[in-house]
Design a protein that fits this description.
This protein is mostly helical. The chain has a domain of 76 residues. Strands 1-2-3 form a three-stranded antiparallel sheet, with no helix packed on it. Helix 1 packs across helix 2. The radius of gyration is 45 Å and the shape is rod-shaped. The chain starts with 6 loop residues before the first strand and ends with a helix. Keywords: Coiled coil.
């Protein structure tokens, strides 16, 4: 057995064992993965990408392919696609719920806005009609005052003629 109590496992013809991975107490550990895989990935141009892959991306990909239970990346603070899946699914569900709530809120606000605009239009029309009535009443009042003054003058002349 190699130092550290790890047992080497080699993949032969599609078995479940992964090359360069050792197991101890049911956990998988990366031992001596061939660097040629990483070197090959680094040498290959990244398809559909404008910039080539960085060394960190390649190491991340190889380590995540080698073992889903690899704790090296997690311990180093690097999120792997596997470790993200449960958290991201929960976060995605939470964001979807939040998005739906925001859409409902936006729809509700839109309905309120339409209702308020309709009310504002009705109030403006009502105010315009009221203003027309007020102007008409003011004009009638002015005409009435003029007629009253004319009648008062006529009455004073009649009274003035009778008193003489």
């Amino acid at each position: 057995m190699p130092p550290g109590g790890m047992k080497r496992v080699r993949a032969i013809g599609g078995s479940e064992a992964t090359p360069g991975v050792a197991t101890r107490s049911g956990k998988k550990y990366i031992t001596n993965h061939p660097t040629s895989t990483m070197e090959d990935m680094l040498a290959q141009p990244a398809q559909d990408l404008e910039t080539p892959r960085s060394s960190t991306e390649i190491v991340l990909k190889v380590l995540s392919q080698t073992s889903a239970a690899c704790t090296f990346l997690k311990n180093d603070g690097i999120e792997t696609p596997v470790s993200k899946s449960a958290a991201s699914a929960t976060r995605e569900a939470q964001l979807q719920k939040q998005l739906q709530a925001e859409k409902e809120r936006a729809d509700n606000l839109e309905e309120q806005l339409v209702h308020l605009k309709k009310k504002a239009t009705e109030i403006e029309e009502s105010m315009a009609r009221t203003q027309e009535v007020v102007l008409k009443n003011q004009q009638e009042l002015e005409e009435f005052k003029k007629k009253q003054e004319a009648n008062d003058m006529i009455l004073q002349r009649i009274l003035g003629l009778n008193s003489e």
